[in-house]
Amino acid sequence: MTPASSHPRDVLLDAQAATARLPVCDHYSGVEARMRKSLQLQQELTQEFGHCVVDVTLDCEDGAPVGEERAHAELVARLALAAAPGNRVAARVHTVDHPAFAQDVEIIAGQAGRRLCHLMLPKVESVDDVLRAERLLDAAGARELPLHALIESPAAVHRAFEIAAHPRIQSLSFGLMDFVSAHGGAIPASAMGAQGQFEHPLVVRAKLEIAAACHAHGKMPSHCVVTEFSDGAALQAAATRAAQEFGYTRMWSIHPAQIRPILAAFAPQADEVERAARILLAAAAAGWAPISDAGALHDRASYRYFWQVLERAHQTGQRLAPPVQAWFQGAATIAPAG
Residues of 286-323 as b/e, b for ≥16 C-beta within 10 angstroms? Predict the structure, then answer.
């Protein structure tokens, strides 16, 4: 049994790729019936996997009926407060220039800030938008609540590194459809599809800039939606490319059927998990000194990588050998829900 003092998280802390290990799937819903079903599904998945494997983000921007923004924000706050303990619930508010923005933050953060895992800001254009949200959160008594930002325009992509550098920012997401629309017809509609979004150079560039900005500042890049929610193969292919080719460690879901394919796409392969477990257990037994495995030398540089493999396996609900699972008992690597 590995002593607690030699836990990989303690020994390799300087190499954590993100300030918080978030679930790889972020599921969005904004209509009351769907929000309730999403929270119920989240609880079922938590019971199945033994820990929370998906965030549920309750949506004001696309969910609030026009003229009923206050009532919708109050509903979001009530649902967040009623969510099962240990499950991660977030909220997406209106844009910073929307008349309901300050009201959203005041109601949702003021009433349920202690229960939320983060607040999503749509259409962030600059750090000034983040600073405005931060001031409102502080005024609402939610000084510790992290912010996620949705990057949806060419100008915002240009400022992605600056936005990611803000200490309150935990993750950046790419808003594909608004990004394409922001180009005034210069990018074809096909670039919003599950396949086309990985082919158009301007969209590809935006994806890579956002991922690079996040990794440069220890934040998690979250990939955009796939609107073809009834096409499981298209979703699986897009999620796999986002994870394996574009450096994304998290992805949006807009339909319950997308959650499990996203978990599968972002999960490491079974043989990679087995190798990571074997190497790290041997390293721990050697006091984290260099070891040899299958004729290859490993030291703390590679240990860090293999620890991240095991973290991803845990985040995606994979079964781990008991000695490895023990590393995840008591102090989860996924950020708590508040």
Answer: eebeebeeeeeebeeebbbebbbbbbbbbbbbbebeee
For the stretch 182-188, contacts whose Cβ atoms lie closer than 8 Å and that sit 24 or more positions apart, written own/partner, are: 182/152, 182/153, 182/154, 183/154
Q: What is the pLDDT of residues 317-335, one digit of tens each?
A: 888 999 999 998 854 444 4
DSSP H helical segments within 100-222, as ranges? 101-112, 127-139, 154-158, 160-165, 176-181, 201-216
Domain boundaries, the chain: 20-266, 269-328
Top-level CATH class of 20-266?
alpha beta
Residue pointed to by tokens 């008992």: 329
Contacting residues for 137 by C-beta, under 8 A, at least 6 apart: 105, 109, 113, 119, 143, 145, 147
Q: Cβ of 230: how many Cβ atoms within 10 Å?
A: 10
Rounded CA separation 24/312 (Å): 8
Half-sphere exposure of 248 (CA within 13 A, CB side): 30
- Give the residue-averaged pLDDT of 117-142: 98
Residue 277 neighbours by CB under 8 Å, 6+ apart: 310, 320, 321, 323, 324
Assess whether pLDDT exceeds 70 at residue 18: no
Confidence of residue 256 (pLDDT cuts 50, 70, 90): very high
Q: Report which DSSP code applies to 128.
A: H
Please compute Rg for the chain using Cα positions.
20
Calpha distance 122→137 (Å, rounded):
15
Residues 156-174 as b/e (b if ≥16 CB within 10 A, e otherwise) read bbebbbebbebebbbbbbb
Q: What are phi and psi of 30, to 5 degrees?
A: -135, -20
126 DSSP 8-state letter: S
d(Cα 77, Cα 274) in Å, to the nearest integer?
42
